[in-house]
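User: Before I run my own analysis I want an independent prediction to cross-check against. Here's the chain; please return only the structure tokens and, at the end, one sentence I can use as a sanity check.
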Amino acid sequence: MLQAIRGKTASIVVKLLAGLLIVSFAAWGVEDFISARATDTVVASVGDRDIDPLDLEYELSRETARLRQMFGGQLNEAQLAQLGIGQAVLQRMINDAALAQEAADLGLRVSDAKVTQAIHADPSFNGFDGAFSRQRFNEVMRAAGLTEFGYIQQVRKDIANTQILQVVSGTAVTPSRFSKLLHRYRFEARSADTVLVSAAAQADPGTPTDADLQAIHDAQKERFTAPEYRKLTFVHLDPANLTSEVTASDEELQQAFEANAARFQKAEQRTVQQIVVNDEATAEKVQQKLAEGVDFLTVATEVGEMEAAAVDLGTVTRNGLLPDLADAVFAIDEGAVTGTVTTPLGFHVMRAIKVLTGVSKTLDDVRDEVTDIVKREKAVTALYDLSVRFEDAIGGGATLEEAGKSVGFDAVTLEAVDRQSMAPSGARAAGLPDLASLLPVAFASERGIESPLTEVGEKGFFMVRVDEIIPPALRPLADVKAEVAAVWAEVQRTEMAQKQAEALAEKVQTGTSMVDAAKTLGVDVVKIGPATRGDQNVAAQAVLARMFEINEGAAGIARVTGGYQVVHVLSVTAPTAGGDVPSVADYEKQLDEAVGNDLAAQAVEAIRNDYGVTVNQRILDAVMRPGTFDPRQPI
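Assistant: Structure tokens:
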């Protein structure tokens, strides 16, 4: 909301797995020295090399577009910020600049012939004949938003960077004995029978004595200690309180409707599958098989020789497809298949799995919603004026209560609330508004001092004062007697379950079958495996760990949620290459590569430290608001 207000007062327009881009950010962190440089024309510097803010904004916009395309346009600006995409892009550019500086100091040059060879060797640019295609190269450049010159320079830089880093990463060698031991440890597979001994299924432990309760109360003091509470007084400048006081004219409604047209117009969409082949003869075979009723995916994989993952194109609008493909796909009904469509990429057969009809609403259809938009915007403007008057009153010596009344908002007092919004009664504190940042600000504030006026998005602003701090205190036993008794019963049942599990494990160890052991409890035997140490989802972590602690044929117990699990190891299988299990030689190569990557990471970090990295935080903050940076304007 603060940005919206500023937009009205200063004409400022305020407009990436896991493992994708954040790798570089995570590897190098943000521990470099951040400073305000004398010049406002660079966002960061590495040695003698500067990173231009426009270059950062360009790379950030490209990465943002790539991630949105990957996730179907579902990532908004706030989510991108939470993922740290901006910092990740900056760190990658700093790494590149550091390596470029090192290459220049070493006199490292990459010839045009080497660059050409690398581009021609990239299968992404191959045509239908398997050789480099200039047409395909141009298509990829356009799709990626790259210029030919820019891409060539990037390839040249990547080759130089690789040559520098291979000096350290290429020397990584994992000792053979260590590789074999780690291979066995990682890929050894075990199978086991398990039986759950539930604590809840144990007999009633009876009634605890006063001594029992006191012992539990003393042993688990943290559990029975009341958290810190604070008495708070706050004023919430809520724009919702102002919307009833503003009106919306027909002209304002029309302008708002046009400004928000994208919210009320939804293009027609299709969920699409595609088979694309290299020649017309194969396309005819595809059409023949489909006409015979063969499943589309089967035809794609067997006749079209496509990977199953490449068949689904997802849900797209007309703009998401090449024009010829869009015309064909949007002309068929749900479940239908197009004829063969020829494009520079090949011969296509498309299927519309689902048809999502477009929506086009008129102003009358959404008059109430548009009215709310206009009123909210006008309330924002009014709230800005109120917030200025409110802060002026505070600055002039008024109390929080007096300042609130001066602008028509009453102060609210909460007698006692903890960090989790709870009152001492255990219920949510009465009168606490739905403001996520109110309590964090309150619990970071000093007693008796008003906090800064804090923005809370569309919910306006608040200011809070801590009137009293009630420190954590152990609740008297008399006040929590029922809770302590429940904990005592839980402890007793858990101990009973442990003893029963240990007795069953001993019987299994001496020859009793797990089936018979399970019958005594009225439960079923659960089989696990074959599983490796890395198969985290096949069983509770404690059970999996116990499987690899005891010998083949042995039995043991593992503490799990709700009781104990008896574990009987049936088999231990040494790893054999095949499927998801690599050979020792291949695994050793993977380890060498991992060690090499670690060494390369350390090398880049050392190079950065040698040259020194500075970041202009003011410029960085401006660029991180996509679409707002203009080097000609003051920040």
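Sanity check: Residues 61 and 626 are 7 Å apart (CA to CA).
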